[in-house]
Design goal:
Number of strands: 0
Strand content: under 5%
Oligomer: single chain
Number of helices: 7
Largest sheet: none
Mean pLDDT: 92
Helix content: over 70%
Length: 142
């Protein structure tokens, strides 16, 4: 589903996280989700380009990065910047049971970002196809 918005490594790690969760391994699943989440922030920064200063972004804590990337991430995530903290706490402090209990919510946060990017990709693809078709029609009728 997300083949065009994340690379093969992230898809593989997402599968590992889900597999670990299904096997009752909570903290291990969080390691993969956190790695994916960190790379999604880097990709969001790439989408932002020069709209966000590289040095400021590099110095920012993760919650600050999320705020900086507000225009490039789902609003639900930017108004709830705690996801990274939950992932980190899951890796370092939470019990396996709590990690497993919270996993579906943190997984859905990752999916939400990917869903939004896939929707944007499809929209751009459709706009490009329509523009091309209109140009073709215009050249034929003028």
């Amino acid at each position: 589903v997300y083949k065009k918005v994340i690379d093969a490594d992230d898809r593989k790690e997402l599968g590992r996280a889900i597999g670990l969760f299904a096997s009752g391994i909570g903290a291990g699943s969080y390691v993969y989700l956190r790695r994916i989440f960190e790379r999604l922030l880097v990709r969001a920064k790439a989408l932002a380009g020069t709209a966000i200063d590289d040095e400021e972004f590099g110095r920012a804590r993760v919650d600050e990065k999320i705020t900086l990337l507000a225009n490039y991430l789902p609003q639900t995530l930017t108004s709830n910047t705690t996801l990274y903290g939950i992932l980190s706490k899951g890796i370092h402090e939470l019990s396996e049971e709590k990690c497993i209990e919270y996993f579906p919510v943190v997984r859905e946060c990752i999916f939400m970002i990917l869903d939004e990017w896939e929707e944007q990709r499809r929209k751009k693809e459709k706009e490009k196809a329509i523009s091309s078709a209109l140009s073709k029609i215009t050249s034929q009728i003028t």
